[in-house]
Amino acid sequence: MSTTTTAASSTTSTLAREFAAVLPDDCLITDEVGLRSYECDGLTGFRQVPAVVVLPRNTEEVAACVRVCARHGVPFVARGAGTGLSGGALPVADGVVISLQKLRRILEIDVENRRAVLEPGVFNLDISRAAGPHGLYYAPDPSSQQVCTIGGNVAENSGGAHCLKYGFTTNHVLEMEVVLADGSVVTLGAPTAEQAGPDLRGVFLGSEGTLGICTKVTVRLLRKPEAVRTVLADFPSVEAAGETVGAIVDAAIVPAAVEMMDSLAMEAAEAAVGAGYTVESPSALIIELDGPAEECDEQFAEITRICEEHGSTRIHVADSADERARVWKGRKAAFAAVGRISPDYIVQDGVVPRTRLAEVLSQIAEMGSEVGLRVANVFHAGDGNLHPLVLYSEAAGEHDAAEDLSSRIAELCVELGGSLSGEHGIGADKACSMGRQFTDDDMAVMQRVRTGFDPAGLCNPGKIFPTPRLCGERPGPFRPHPLEEAGVISRL
Amino acid sequence: MNTTPTSPASLTELRDAVRDTPGPVVATGAGTAADWGAPLVGEATPISVAGLSGVIAHNPGDMTVSVGAGTPLADLQEVLAASGQRVALDAARARRGATVGGLFATADAGPLALGFGTLRDLVIGVTTVLADGTVARSGGHVIKNVAGYDLAKLLHGAYGTFGVVAEIVLRLHPLPAATRTVALQVPDPAGVPAAGRAVTDTPVEAAALEWVDGRLLALLEGTEAGVEGRASRLVDLLGADAEVLATADADAAWEAHRDAVDVRPDDRAVLRVGVAPTRLGDLLGGLVADLGAAGVTAAPATGVATFTVPAEPVAVDAVHTRVADLGGTSTLRARPAGSAVPAWGPTPSSAVLLRSVAAAFDPDHRLGRGRLAPWLPVPEGASA
Ligand SMILES: Cc1cc2nc3c(=O)[nH]c(=O)nc-3n(C[C@H](O)[C@H](O)[C@H](O)COP(=O)(O)OP(=O)(O)OC[C@H]3O[C@@H](n4cnc5c(N)ncnc54)[C@H](O)[C@@H]3O)c2cc1C
Predict the structure, then answer these.
(1) Among candidate residues A140, A92, A53, A134, the one with its CA nearest the CA of residue A457
(2) What residue's CA is closest to ligand 1, atom 36?
(3) Are strands A314-318 and A350-351 parallel, antiparallel or unpaired?
């Protein structure tokens, strides 16, 4: 046994002893089998068994656990449900995983003020379930909402189909209780719409678990809209569907959701849940409108007309709640369903300005065929947030080619003036691509924020920011924004 | 000789000015909120961002625009209107020429905050100059974007501390095709919360809801037929004290609201406070009698209220205390020149982070020194 391993295991036993002093036995995992179930999140290609997993039951226990880590200079990683797709909850070698799964109480549904107070382990969908009887709901709706936690949503600033109209997690969180990296507890934000001073709550939201552990969160609830109208429209080409989205925007309509699927994605979803999609159609849009009844009806008629004008080959109006649920079920099942048409696949997440959708999709198709891999597309078309699914076979040795294609797709999004990630986060997955989107100075300034929150760098290290160890020589050079190249904007 | 430009015309010049100017620096825009927040401490050199003005890139199809921070919001709205778009922000002082950067730094907002949030929600990218001349960008030109930390949030409401905002990217919304304003008589402030709930409990979805001059105004935005239908439904639901205002009356009513929140009295301090909607009744009750408040306006759905009190430390402090006791937040807006009244409420637990992040951004506290005091204290020996 090497000396470093011996040193690590003696620290581990010291840690375990100290955790045992602040937690009951069943809240501490140190056995190999138990630890293995925490070795990765939804990005299963990245694995690391942690030294210890702790499952505190309340804020005080979270803080006590963090203090143990701080005392020993041991890094820790917060974990919700582990559905993250960028390796954000990937453990650090010889580090601690702090699972929030025992903090799962809905503390309050405040009907009159339209807000909910939650522990971080509450599942996203359970908020709307609890608020539903009062005519209220929680708007951000990631496709994983049945199983992902509000704490994970806070960390990733998660989005969903309906974020086009209603905004992302950051637009719905009012206040958070946060355990900082030294074990102290602070409140960020306020339970009010008006907030005073710099918005530290907003800085924490989307910081991917690198600035502290959220132990309580107050979110806004919305009144359920009076009317909802949903249409599934087939199009003869991806371009036609893309142009339809543009025409809807030009008509000054802000739909609740506009989702696009290509034929591969529909084939997979259809095989999995039978959502009623036309498998032969090259592409389809799911368009949903909501709001006051008179406006909804009027705009719905206009949307139908726009679809027809753009050559829609079939317009299927989901006119009952059941039918609507069926249409959405196919969309929400699409990622997992791709497993039915390909042995392995990688989910990518990138954003382009919406007006460049058609261009990016045809480039992606080209890049795929160059390397002989299929790419399925199912994504949030309204805000240009792509989710290309790169299909491959591990057994056929296609893994590296697929990884490479997937990374190049994300970087292409940046080149087109977009972003490396719209909702899944940078995590461990795309840290090495950050240099494509941001300059060294940009990232150094972000690191100054991190220093302010966590001077010792114990909180989820190795995520978001490229490190030489992680990236080697790989991070490509920063490239100027296309508007900079065109001389329209300049950095200096 | 050091010829520091105090009115830089480009990002490079701004960077050099911020870096090379000795001592404390204060970024200025149109000067419409020069006296908001806590007073500056020491002899700060003003550096105007007014020269960084105008649209940098507007892509109507993507519904985004990037602008120099010194762009007056009203000018920008005019440009955008030609494409049927707007920044969904209606802060009253925009009519006095307030710049996008200034509105952002002071976290200002107007009635539309109910429907669209504030600049915190509308800004999707920012370029900032730090005290040491580092130029950093975060966010970008797309509405959906989670890559990297969101530095814009740190600068929103920072009153020129942390960094000088140079460029801002905004998400846009379509201009509504039609609007209606429904007015409901609510003479007594005690009746405001219930009247507000009466509106928000209906499905008509007001974009703004404000109580001013004894009336609750509900702004409906949408299609012509849509707002017509919704307005008459709302009047039916609210009863005899409600009416749909004629266009000219609606314009006058909203202008009166702007007059009420955008006041600059000689002897009174203006405060903007926010509480949970259910606490608004407790706040409004006794505001006039106990605290000597006047010019009260309130937004029952967001819990935000603006009013004036005598510009005495005791009076302003009493507001901060009362709001804090109700679980809310309070900020000083305009104050008479020379008056020393506390700008901020009780120091929050998160101030430790403001201080540690500020130490990493601007260790000598050169930018906006004093503005966030005592949350962000003035460094020892720097008070001269
Ligand atoms: C099938 C599928 C569909 C998905 N669809 C979407 C979608 O539509 N939109 C979308 O945005 N995402 C989607 N995701 C990604 C994922 O569900 C979200 O990122 C989600 O927010 C993660 O929540 P979690 O509880 O699983 O967090 P984890 O995966 O456990 O953790 C995610 C990150 O959050 C941090 N974290 C967790 N809890 C806390 C806390 N309390 N305090 C501080 N940091 C914390 C972790 O350290 C990690 O960095 C999808 C995932 C899957 C598998």
Answers:
(1) A92
(2) A152
(3) unpaired
Judge if ipTM > 0.95: yes
As a whole number of Å, the end-to-end CA separation of chain A is: 54
Residues 6+ apart with CB under 8 A from A148: A80, A81, A83, A123, A124, A142, A158
Q: How far is CA A307 from the centre of its chain?
A: 30
Q: Are A155 and A206 in contact (CB under 8 A)?
A: yes
Does the C-beta of A213 come closer than 6 Å to ligand 1? Answer: yes
The whole-number average pLDDT for the span B17-26 is 96
To which residue do tokens 């519904």 refer?
A: B63
Q: B146–A156: do the CB atoms touch at under 8 Å? A: yes
Cite the beta strand spans of A14-66 per DSSP E: 28-29, 52-54
Closest CA to B272 of B95, B37, B101: B37
**Which residues on B lie below 8 Å from A191 (Cβ)?**
276, 327
Q: B99 has which bridge partners?
A: B72
Reported as a pLDDT band with limits 50, 70 and 90, residue B384 is very low
Q: Is A85 in the pocket of ligand 1 (CB under 6 A)?
A: yes
Do residues A276 and A326 make contact, with C-beta atoms less than 8 angstroms apart? yes
Number of H helices, E strands in chain A: 17, 20
Residue of B149, B175, B223 with shortest CB distance to A298:
B223
Pocket test for ligand 1, best of A37, A61, A148 (most atoms within 8 A of CB): A148
Whole-number percent of chain B with pLDDT over 70: 98
Interfacial B residues in 248-307 facing A (CB < 8 Å): 272-278, 302-304
Q: Any chain A CB within 8 A of the CB of B317?
A: no
pLDDT value for A2: 46
| Among the listed residues A170, A334, A167, the one whose alpha carbon sits nearest the alpha carbon of residue A257 | A167
- Please say if the pLDDT value at position A475 is more than 50: no
Model pLDDT, residue B379: 81
Dihedral pair phi/psi, residue A76, rounded to 5°: -135, 155
How many angstroms does the Cα of residue B184 sit away from the middle of ligand 1?
Answer: 45
Cα–Cα dist A193/B91, whole Å: 15
Among A252, A421, A451, the residue with its CB nearest the CB of B174 is A252
Residue of B nearest to A115 (CA): B276
A38 lines ligand 1 (CB under 6 A): no
Query: E strands of A126-226, at which residues?
Result: 136-137, 173-179, 185-189, 213-220, 222-223
Judged by CB atoms closer than 8 Å, whether chains meet at A197 and B12 is answered as: no
Q: What are phi and psi of A146, to 5 degrees?
A: -70, -25
Instruction: Determine the Cα–Cα distance for residues B309 and B288; give it in Å rounded to an integer.
Output: 9
